[in-house]
Structure formats: structure tokens, C-alpha cells
Amino acid sequence: MDITESALGSVSQINLEGRFDANTCGTVEQFIREKIGAGGRHFVLNMEKVPFIASAGLRVILVFAKELQKDEGDLHLANLQPNVTRVFEISGLKNAIRIFDDVDRASREFGQMAENQ
Questions:
Q1: Which residues share a beta bridge with 49?
Q2: Burial tier of 75 (Cβ tally within 10 Å: 0-12, 13-18, 19+)
Q3: Cα separation of 39 and 2, whole Å?
């Protein structure tokens, strides 16, 4: 799993590339945990280059989404490939996690959330 990051204001865009499974979820988890430790609260996971997600990857996403929401943050997903979207649908998590068609829209949503508070 290759992980890169770019900042869009207060939003951290995390770009993932590779399979998101039991072998790679620890790397993603550690990366996000470090960003939260540094004060990050708003994250967009760009999943454009993730061809596969296993239950271990779903767990990482769900744990961080819940953790961040408790701390007035959130985790959005963007650019899911069709087969990854299908995994979210089958698991019942498609409505539990905010999923966007593109990174820009996912990032802008954080600004709209702040305006509504």
C-alpha cells in the first residue's frame, strides 16, 4: 500500500494505492493515527487506486470514522472503484460512511458542515 498526503486547508487528503486488506490495513491505520495525533480532524481518503478492500480495511475506516465524529471531525471517502463500492453496499456500510464521487466535493463538504454548526 502506497500512501501520500496533501493538505486542502484544514482537510487532509490521504491518497491510497493498492489493496486494502489484512496485510496493508496496519500501515493505513498507523498513518491516520499519526495524523490524528498531530491534530488532524478532517480526512478524505482518496480510494481511486484501491482495486480491492477486505473486511480489515472496512474495520479501519469504520473505527476512524466513529472516533473522529466523537471529536467533531469526520472521515469522507472519494473515488471508489465499482467493486469497492459494491463491498460497501454488501456490508451495509454505504450509508454509514460519507462517500463522494470526487475529492473536491468530499473536501468542500467539510466547509459546509462548519457553516451549518
A1: 17
A2: buried
A3: 22
- pLDDT tens-digit series, residues 50-79: 999 999 999 999 999 999 999 889 999 999
Domain boundaries, the chain: 2-106
What's the predicted TM-score (pTM) here? 0.89
Tell me, which fold does domain 2-106 have in CATH?
Transcription Regulator spoIIAA (3.30.750)
Collect all residues with Cβ–Cβ distance below 8 Å to 79 and sequence separation of at least 6.
Answer: 46, 47, 48, 100, 101, 102, 103
